[in-house]
Amino acid sequence: MGRMGGTRSYSANPSDYQLLEEIGHGATATVYKAIYLPSKDVLAVKCLDLDRCSGTNLDDVRREAQTLRLIDHPNVLRAYSSFVVDRNLWVVMPFMSEGSCLHRMKTAYPDGFEEAAIASILKETLKALDYLHRQGHIHRDVKAGNILLDNKGTVKLADFGVSACMFDSGDRQRSRNTFVGTPCWMAPEVMQSGTGYNSKADIWSFGITALELAHGHAPFSKYPPMKVLLMTIQNAPPRLDQDCDKKFSKSFKDMVAMCLVKDQTKRPTAEKLLKHSFFKHAKPPELSVKKLFAPLEPLSNPAKPLQLKDAAQLALKNMPSADQEATSRSQYQRGVSAWNFDIEDLKAQASLVHDDDDDGDIHECKDDDRSTKSSLGDKTAASCISSSIVLSNDLCKSWVIIPA
């Protein structure tokens, strides 16, 4: 039975839906713009290929469908209906016409948004996280590519492809021990074997997303994934620089610093963070967020750049190592954020991390809080990361919905 969408309900009959152009894709799913024929409503339909899911991933698929259908919050992308078609699971969702914050930045704001827009977007995103955490969920992939916008300025947090429900064994406070997400946004505890993590991992990712919206890219985004893992564990947490980021308020800088604390017990909850002074004066999104759309043309086929990127990554594997590293860094500088976590790819990227240049790269960022620097050496950190990857490499795949 379909859930209610406003005053309408959407059926579980695939013949009621006309799939149009592809608007997003991932390791096991493709998202289409669609028309619901009985009412002519424009929707998004996510089609998950069950044949491409391993046993573990199939459990994730079932959890995702269940989670989305139970979601009821204005800032979380929900599911109106879900049903099996042949060997695919179809999930019917709202169509977010203005795409993701990542696409906005790539299209017209390569250096990031103004603080007023950032405050509005982050406040709405934080409301979504507060709701999810209260319901016992960890999102685990908070980033600009998963914050979707529509033409009214509505902000919704999307992509439960790697989400986790802490209620599934009856203990809503238990810690997770799976390595899932996108490395630039990952909390240190997610990367390390045996430490476990909880909803505070989303707060770290939220802080990284704040930096991403401010600069147009995430910290360490020019490096290969394995090197990002090492740098996140070994370096002091990234910050808004006092000198280079003078255009941003002290309140914004303080809020980011509160999120990016390596000790997860010292990070605020989403509920507490909403009370921070940075969010108290945030404008309604229909005012500040809608201004971001003014200079932009409609996105005709947002999935095409991602398809081209995937093809480029296949070619990347066959390049000489020196050319591969240069190309990889160039891609990250352009804002690639939806890395496909395949264990062999990670091993290949790890081979690019040379001992003779690690120190220079790791210390090129300012160390504003040396007391938080991890005591892990290169070998210990690499061992922790390797153990974490082996622990759950089937889960290490994420995808991004980027509607037109």
TrEMBL record:
Matching InterPro entries: Kinase-like_dom_sf, Prot_kinase_dom, Protein_kinase_ATP_BS, STRAD_A/B-like
UniProt domain Protein kinase: residue ranges: 17-279
Compositional bias segments (type: Basic and acidic residues): 362-372
Binding site for ATP: 46
Entry keyword set: ATP-binding, Kinase, Nucleotide-binding, Transferase
Alphabetized SUPFAM superfamilies for the sequence: Protein kinase-like (PK-like) (SSF56112)
GO molecular function: ATP binding; protein kinase activity; protein serine/threonine kinase activator activity
Keyword hit for Protein biosynthesis: no
Family label: Belongs to the protein kinase superfamily. STE Ser/Thr protein kinase family. STE20 subfamily.
Name the record gives this protein: Kinase superfamily protein
Organism: Theobroma cacao
